[in-house]
Specification:
The chain has 1014 residues and is α+β, with helices and mostly antiparallel strands. Among the domains are: 320 residues, 7 Propeller (Methylamine Dehydrogenase, Chain H), CATH 2.130.10.10; 105 residues, Immunoglobulins (Immunoglobulin-like, Sandwich), CATH 2.60.40.10; 110 residues, no CATH class; 129 residues, Histidine kinase-like ATPase, C-terminal domain (Heat Shock Protein 90), CATH 3.30.565.10. It has a five-stranded mixed β-sheet, with no helix packed on it. Strands 60-66-65-62-63 form a five-stranded mixed β-sheet, with no helix packed on it. A hairpin with a 5-residue loop joins strand 18 and strand 19. Helix 2 runs antiparallel to helix 3 and helix 2 packs across helix 6. The longest helix has 76 residues.
Length: 1014
């Protein structure tokens, strides 16, 4: 815990605390004790709104950041936004659902005191203590030695049990505690105090000692300590201070009547919080203020008080729960002594005083007190505000204020015009001024007073008392100036106008003018602030403009502002700019300001303080110029609709604690899996999960509405998803597999927990999404394709077989036809030709010797002999007997030899004997192709050598016939001379074979035929 230095504040008279808080501030989110409770940020959660089912009896905060609330109907876990009913596992029930006390110990364990005993929850396991069974556990305390003390009350006698690890030792069975110990406290010196009915026990160190109270009926309800470490005790007679065995009245200040306290809490900065039946009382250094149901507290009866680790104070009442936390911007109102909450303007005098113009008076804030100046006292005003009556100042609403260089405070009211000097009002009559229409005032470098009057124009009141008036029309305007300011560097007066634009007036002449089209912001000029370097800051409806050396530029949302409408601007002691805008109070650091001035394209890092920080949001400027003032101590004062607001730029409260981040549950297809209880290892979601919702939270209880989140689902999100304040992530149609979800968060001050939280989960695959199913499916698909392929192949093979068989039958039929023809040629035609030859021979012998007849007969006989030879050869070709008897290889080889002998062309023949197994039809086809190829070579090629090869390889048989003849021009085939080639190609295609023909003039000819082996 970090605590800032604090100096003493002295309040004038008996007024409520006003400005003492200006002397004390902290750089953490702790409550400034010099403020009233009403000046803190307050939030109430009420039972009637459904926050809980019943009253909250106790509050604790575990190290993970959760707030635990004990109620009559169970234990609630609260993250600042939502409550969740907490239940242990079904096989580990609590002693009772009526929770009386809760305690978070250093080891992260949660101790739960119920109406029927004590339990301890840690590591996913609940431990019950039999020594407390059947008793109400009122209080639970952990001492500096990590021993847990529990007071267990009963109608017979109460017990006090000390629990350390597994050792439990109880006291009180002798009845010394009556029906129970009602209060427990270990003071800063290590003394353990017990409060019982009628007295106090000092249990240790040393032997226990009992100190009876003077009134035996006194019941000790709570303990705490004062600033000196003395024990404070709540009794039926009020708060007592226990010193040296004596309990005496504790002076709190304020009303003399004793405060009937129900609970006590001294916060980390020394303020004492007192829970009573009529609200919460806040005491600090002799000052008291009360916050009750009429002020917004959820209920008057305060049951418990608790301070969390961020310094917020929690109050449980009979009607709900309340939280008080610090604000960046503090407000002063009538509760703090202002004469009226409706303030119109503010001015800071050189002597350190701050002046407020209100609806019916002028208030001076000085030395922690308020002095109100008005003609008549207002009935009902508390005596804590000093009144000055009859000082010559007409009472009326005070609009415009100005603190001049001589320490005088000028004011324009709805009824008069004048100034205050040494607490006296001086009325000044300026005939040209309609006091109710004054918009702004300024003092130039010569001490002259300038007044911007909406009706009369620009009025100058010189130091000599002379009054000069310049109508707005004379300055080139139909509208009027809403803000004026002196240029202390060049001299002259700056004027900002209602319809927009600024002008510099010097020696009665307008020297420079800037309009929205010349870089100035658009719309109404609300405020002017000259800078020490001679530049001018202009607050407009279109942004914050900067005018310097004849050039104007405007800072807008394009350069990082949260919004464009700027009501006023002021620089703090560090020269950082503070802007009041339509979206809140904005701070731009000095370095960013300088960078933007040097480069108007620079984007600034603006910090926005909105309603949650105490800054009011106003669409239009509230009050009259000046709206804001900086006092001599560096504080910024500005008017609002309900008083005056103050910010101390040097001591801005800053929450340095990064919020713990937790993933609470997964909702998978409307089925909830709580990941915060039990085993938090990898979560397995069922197959076919379509919708996944992940609920997460971050424990910054000071301002949970300003906690920001980023998350990422690894493998799905390529980058961090910025989701603002949303506490849920949604994913649809995630594929089966392993996932890791990560989430980080920042608190209200922008401090990020970069570690965050992560959750591993798995979506199980359906059977059809598993690897084995995929493998089986792929195998089945392959098998199906292979089967289909085999079936198709079988069909093709069967088709080919059928075609081959048909061709085989066809060729067999052709062969039989050839055999028949050959037989008929041999047995018929050839026999007839032989007979004719024999007859001719006989006739030649019988004819008389005639040379002519003999020659003719010889010639006919030779023709018949040649025809017979040809017929014999044709018969042999139609029916080669050797092919049927010896097979294709032997027939090829023999035919090549016979062809070579008959044609006198050398034929080289190479055959593969394994081709003899070729079917008869296929063998006959190849033999016919051989005959045709050799015949073509003999008739057309004029070959000198022919090569024949018959080969069997890779399930096929190949016949190659090549010669070295003259070759053939392929173009000649188109003339019809290629009939033999066509026949050879058709023969090959009948057997699903491949026919190749290669020839060129002068390069010979090659015929290649390849058929499947059958």
């Amino acid at each position: 815990m970090v605590i800032a230095r604090r100096r003493e504040c002295h309040v004038v008279g008996f007024i409520a605390p006003l400005v003492c808080f200006l002397a004390c501030c902290s750089n953490v989110f702790a409550l400034d004790p010099t403020l009233d409770v009403s000046q803190y940020a307050h939030t109430a959660w009420k039972i009637r709104d459904g926050f809980t089912k019943s009253i909250i009896k106790s509050i604790a905060q575990t190290p993970d950041g959760y707030l635990w609330l004990g109620t009559e109907f169970g234990l609630l876990r609260f993250d600042g936004v939502r409550t969740t009913e907490w239940h242990p596992p079904a096989d580990q029930p609590l002693p009772s659902s009526d929770i009386w006390s809760v305690l978070a110990t250093h080891d992260g364990a949660l101790w739960i005191g119920t109406a029927n005993g004590l339990a301890r929850w840690t590591g996913g396991r609940l431990t019950r203590y039999q020594e407390t069974e059947g008793r109400i556990v009122w209080r639970v305390l952990e001492d500096r030695e990590n021993t847990v003390w529990a007071s267990a009350s009963a109608a017979s006698f109460g017990r006090l049990c000390a629990i350390r690890d597994t050792d439990v030792k109880c006291y009180g069975d002798d009845g010394r505690f009556g029906y129970g110990v009602l209060a427990l406290r270990e003071d800063r010196k290590g003394n353990l105090w017990l409060g019982v009915s009628g007295g106090i026990w000092r249990w240790r160190p040393g032997p226990p000692v009992f100190f009876p109270l003077s009134g035996q009926a006194d019941m000790v309800g709570a303990f705490d300590e004062d600033a000196d470490g003395q024990l404070l005790v709540t009794t039926d007679r009020g708060i007592r201070r226990f010193v040296a065995g004596e309990a005496n009245a504790y002076p709190l200040g304020g009303p003399a009547a004793p405060i009937r306290a129900l609970d006590l809490l001294r916060d980390r900065l020394g303020a004492l919080w007192i829970g009573t039946a009529k609200g919460v009382v806040h005491a600090y250094e002799g000052r008291l203020d009360t916050f009750a149901q009429v002020d917004g507290l959820s209920g008057d009866a305060v049951l418990g008080l608790f301070e969390d680790r961020e310094g917020s104070i929690w109050v449980s009442t009979a009607n709900g729960l309340d939280r008080f936390r610090t604000l960046v911007v503090s407000a002063l109102s009538e509760r703090q002594g202002l004469s009226n909450a409706q303030a119109f303007s503010v001015a800071a005098a050189p002597d350190g005083s701050v002046w407020l113009g209100t609806r019916d008076s002028l208030d001076k804030l000085e030395d922690g007190g308020v002095t109100s100046y008005r003609a008549h006292a207002r009935p009902g005003v508390a005596s804590t505000t000093r009144q000055v009556v009859g000082n010559g100042f007409p009472g009326a609403a005070v609009g415009v204020l100005l603190a001049d260089s001589r320490g005088r405070v000028w004011m324009a009211t709805t009824a008069s015009f004048g100034y205050f000097d040494r607490d006296r009002a001086h009325y000044v009559e300026v005939p040209a001024v309609a006091v109710h229409a004054v918009r702004s005032m300024a003092e130039d470098t010569d001490g002259n007073l300038w007044i911007a009057d909406q009706q009369a124009g620009l009025v100058r009141l010189s130091t000599s008392g002379r009054v000069d008036q310049t109508p707005w029309a004379a300055l080139g305007h139909k509208d009027f100036a809403t803000s004026i300011a002196a240029d202390v560097v060049r001299g002259g007066l700056w004027l900002g106008f209602w319809d927009g634009g600024v002008s510099l007036l010097q020696n009665g002449t307008v020297r420079d003018t800037y309009q929205p089209g010349q870089g100035l912001g658009k719309g109404r000029v609300s405020n002017l602030r000259p800078d020490a370097d001679g530049s001018l800051w202009v607050a407009t409806a279109g942004g914050l403009s900067h005018v310097r050396n004849g050039h104007a530029a405007t800072l807008t949302t394009a350069n990082g502002l949260p919004c464009d409408v700027v009501h006023w601007a002021v620089a703090d002691d560090d020269r950082s700019l503070w802007l009041n805008s339509a979206c809140g109070l904005i701070r731009v650091a000095r370095a960013d300001v300088d960078a933007w001035v040097a480069n108007p394209g620079h984007v600034v890092q603006a910090v926005l303080f909105d309603g949650s920080d105490g800054a009011r949001l106003d669409a239009l400027p509230t009050g009259y110029d000046p709206f804001v003032a900086k006092s001599s101590d560096g504080k910024l004062w500005f008017v609002s609709l309900d008083g005056v607001e103050i910010v101390d730029p040097r001591h801005l409260p800053f929450n340095t604690i990064p919020p713990p981040v937790h993933i609470e549950q997964i909702v998978a297809d409307h089925r909830t899996v709580d990941v915060r209880s039990g085993d938090q290892s990898r979560i397995s979601l069922p197959p076919r999960t379509r919708d996944v919702q992940i609920d997460y939270t971050a424990l910054s209880l000071a301002a949970p509405e300003k906690v920001l989140f980023r998350y990422q689902l690894e493998g799905v999100d390529n980058a961090w998803q910025t989701v603002g304040t949303r506490r849920q992530a949604f994913y649809n149609n995630l594929a089966p597999g392993n996932y890791r979800f990560r989430v980080i968060a920042s608190n209200n001050s922008g401090v990020w927990n970069e570690t965050g939280a992560s959750l591993d989960f798995r979506i199980a695959p359906a059977y059809y999404q598993t690897g084995w199913f995929l493998a089986v499916s792929v195998g089945m698909f392959i098998a199906l394709v292979w089967g289909a392929h085999r079936i198709r192949l079988g069909i093709v093979e069967r088709h080919e077989y059928e075609i081959s068989a048909l061709n085989e039958r066809l060729m067999k039929a052709q062969e039989q036809e050839r055999i028949r023809i050959a037989g008929e040629l041999h047995d018929g035609v050839m026999q007839e030709m032989l007979a004719a030859t024999m007859i001719l021979g006989t006739a030649k012998r019988r004819i008389s010797d005639s040379a002519y007849a003999t020659a003719a007969i010889d010639k006919v006989q030779q023709k018949l002999i040649q025809a017979g030879t040809d017929l014999r050869q044709l018969s042999h070709d139609l029916h080669p007997p050797l092919l049927q008897e010896a097979g294709l290889p032997k027939a090829v080889q023999t035919y090549c030899e016979e062809f070579s002998a008959a044609s006198t062309i050398p034929v080289s023949c190479e055959v593969d004997e394994t081709a003899s197994e070729l079917s008869r039809g296929s063998a006959l086809t190849l033999f016919r192709i051989l005959q045709e190829a050799l015949g073509n070579a003999a008739k057309h090629a004029k070959a000198g050598r022919i090569t024949v090869r018959l080969m069997r390889e890779n399930g096929s048989v190949t016949l190659v016939v090549s010669d070295n003849g003259v070759g053939l021009d392929r173009s000649a085939l188109s003339t019809g001379s290629g009939l033999g080639l066509v026949m050879m190609r058709e023969r090959a295609s009948q057997l699903n074979g491949r026919f190749e023909f290669d020839s060129a003039p002068g390069r010979g000819t090659t015929v290649r035929v390849t058929i499947p082996f059958r």
